[in-house]
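User: Some background: our group keeps a shared notebook of sequences we're curious about, and every so often someone picks one and asks for a predicted structure to add to the entry. Today it's my turn. The entry only has the sequence so far, pasted here. Could you supply the structure so I can complete it?
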Amino acid sequence: MASIVKRKNRYSVVYTYTDENGVKRQKWEIFATNAEAKKRKVQVEFEQETGTFIIPNASTVSDLLEEYMSIYGVNTWAMSTYEARRSLIFNYINPLIGDMKLEDVTPRTMDKYYQSLLMVKAKVVNNHKPTHEYLTAHTVREIHKLLRNAFNQGVKWELMSRNPVQNATLPKEEHKERDIWTVETLFKALEVCDDYNLSLALNLAFSCSLRMGEMLGLTWDCIDISERSIKNDCAYIFVNKELQRVNSNALEQLGEKGVMFKFPPAVASTHTALVLKEPKTKTSIRKIFLPKTVAEMLVQKHKDIENLKELFGEEYMDFNLVFASSCGRPIEGQVINRALAKLIKDNDLPPVVFHSFCHSSITYKLKLNGGDMKSVQGDSGHAQVKMVADVYSHIIDDDRRINAQRFEEQFYQSKAASAAEKTQEETKAETASQTDQEMLLKLLANPEMAALLKSLAKNL
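Assistant: Of course. Here's the predicted structure to add to the notebook entry:
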């Protein structure tokens, strides 16, 4: 049996096990939340009862990472996180330092490892070609975060005396702002777009600050586009799931955790599965009000789908999806991405990725409401307002130019105008003074006028 002990802000799962020498030992595993501790407690008790319990006795980096994934990862990671970190381990960690003994892992060896990663060629993962030939500083930092957490667990499990990457030297990462379209460019794109699904996708992403998976996971039972709602400006969508293609191994290891629905495969495949899954965070679950134009587009889309159902009859696979193919199957992100790339190429538009429309949406809404980040956060689903401020509070170049123009007019031009006015007044005074002197000299040149002026001066 295992128990949970709370110490300050941490929760420890305490249990007894018998080591390889037959000696009974007590183990403490520390977790950040009570929920994580409860999951681990249930897991330990189940494995001890069924004889599948693994004694934490890793000796190499790969041993530690295997236990780390089976104990920590299974209980705390979402499916996409599990898949991404598993890929990092099997592609870039185990092949290079997996056989290294834990006692041989030092801060110096890890700094050299991080530096060497920049010369490692990026792998093709799930048929997705890497965007760079070699690993980037960003990927190296992701690997570091994974190892730092794994080594922390190793210290807690008493497999290591200290964390060798706690103060690691990491390559500098250059943060590049994501390119986004101006409103004028988006208008032009929508005018020339003849792909209805892409047009609807662009309108939804921009007006509702939706991510690709959230948009493609929309179902009609989570949308209110009734005539009354549209008339009263209260039509809305409710985001509570997302479409995602996941690795079948990750699906199995996590016991389909967070999966709401698993689509039947279109072709025989054992590597991946298409699912509707819960969002990563609670704040991602949200209600978003629709502009009337977008609501009416959804009304038309619903009519089109009903016509397809009538046309295909039982052959139509009805999953209640908003974005569905002509036979009812879900439309995946790569289909939308290809359509967007074609639209950009055919119409000589600035290159952007689909996620940039979520950025554009938030930036535009901040402009409309005068920077009310809290209300924008409600639409975007970010966990913290700070995330909206840090990532999206940049102002579009046109507005920044306008700010510079206003500054020039209000400060520098007004200062110049004031100086010019002062100079003009001084010039007038100087001119008047010169005129008076000239007139006086003319009067004095006349003997009679000179005598008269002298007489007047004596009487003053």
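Suggested note for the entry: The chain is about 55% helix and 10% strand. The domain at 56-176 is CATH 1.10.150.130 (DNA polymerase; domain 1).
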